[in-house]
Every structure is written in C-alpha cells, then in structure tokens.
Amino acid sequence: MAAKRAHLAVDYNQLNSFSSVVLYDTAHTCTRKTYKDKFNVERIIYRRKARNDFEYLIRWEGWTLDQSTWEPTEHLTPELLRSYEKPLKPNPGRLEEASRQFYSGVLSALRAKSVAPFYVSFDLDLWRYVSSNRGCNSQHKGYKLYSIEDLAFLKLPEHWWNYLNDHGQGQAVKPPLKIKPILSWTPATQMFKDGKLIVRQRMPLEKLCVDILRRPCDTANLFQ
C-alpha cells in the first residue's frame, strides 16, 4: 500500500533539531522532489489528534524506524485508514516475538517483590490486532481490562499467568490485567558526524504498560 509524503518549503534538518518527534525524513539521499513521490507503508504505528483531524505515525517500507513520519489523513488511502482500525493478520514471527516479550515481562513481575506496573516492548499495530474487540474499559484513562482468555491470541506458554519457585510456591496473576498502549521517544542526544555536532534522530518506542494484581499460589491452589 502506498501513501504520499508531505512536501513543504521547510528546512527539515533544522526543524527536527528542535522538535520532540521526527516530523519528516531527513536522510541525506533524499531530494526535494522525493517528497512528491509515493512510498510503500510498512505499518501504521500510532494515531494522534491534530486540530480537527488525525495524524498517523508511518513506518515506511525500506526506511529505518527513526525516519518514520507523522502524516495527515489526506495522505493515506481509505484502505490504509481502515487497516488502522482493523489491522491485518500479522506475520507469525512478529507475533511469536511479541508474545515472548509479554511473557518475559509477566514472569519478571511475578518474581519481583515490587507491585508497580511494568513495561513491555510491543509493536502498537500488533497490539491493536491482538486486542481488537477484546477487553473492557477501565476507569483509568487509556487503560483497558483484559481477562486471561482475552489474551489467547498471544502465543503464550500454558499457565503463563503464574510463577512457582523450586519449593512449589509463588505468585499468580489475579485477573483482570490492566493494560495501556504507550508511544514514547528516545532521549534527545547529539553526535559528531563529518566533524560537526548534530542532533541524533529520536526513535519512537512502542510499549505496553501492564498493571496486575497478584495472589499467592502453590501447587494446591494454582487454578483458584
């Protein structure tokens, strides 16, 4: 699927040096006429409100993640806009890797003494697919509540929701899980390139904030 990239009379290298996000591609190989062309969309990462419309953060096919750009609705085809609300079935390899990340986060949380929420790296378009038509709204903004069954689309080990130590004692997740998708950015840093100090492009960070209740468990009450 293809979409337009914006072309405005702006020095994007200078603009990005002051911006908190990557607005437009600043690769040295690009020319002004490049922005008039159409590019293939690898995936839509995120959507944000912009005045009376939306802007979409696009990962472009063949371009690095730090060259993702915010694009207005008018630059996307109807098919792409529909794919944001109803993502297509992902590559199995991506789903397996995301499932491993999720399971690792839950397991670490159950082993730890802290009861604070934890974060899991998770592509946000993949999460929209996994969580589509699942869960219910939480009283906390941005969060939804999910049962164990709601997460069946993830490729998780059997009994992933509990941890037992060598003595057969541990902790288990007490449903529901409270989950919020989050988009953040790497810190602003500088680097030397061709003898000049320049601002390094900031990378989007896609993750889930997961908040769970825990209950003590052992081999006798594992399924309570």
Automatic annotation (TrEMBL):
<dbReference type="InterPro" id="IPR023779">
    <property type="entry name" value="Chromodomain_CS"/>
</dbReference>
<dbReference type="GO" id="GO:0005634">
    <property type="term" value="C:nucleus"/>
</dbReference>
<dbReference type="InterPro" id="IPR016197">
    <property type="entry name" value="Chromo-like_dom_sf"/>
</dbReference>
<dbReference type="InterPro" id="IPR023780">
    <property type="entry name" value="Chromo_domain"/>
</dbReference>
<dbReference type="InterPro" id="IPR051219">
    <property type="entry name" value="Heterochromatin_chromo-domain"/>
</dbReference>
<dbReference type="Pfam" id="PF00385">
    <property type="entry name" value="Chromo"/>
</dbReference>
<feature type="domain" description="Chromo">
    <location>
        <begin position="39"/>
        <end position="76"/>
    </location>
</feature>
<protein>
    <recommendedName>
        <fullName>Chromo domain-containing protein</fullName>
    </recommendedName>
</protein>
<keyword id="KW-0539">Nucleus</keyword>
<dbReference type="InterPro" id="IPR000953">
    <property type="entry name" value="Chromo/chromo_shadow_dom"/>
</dbReference>
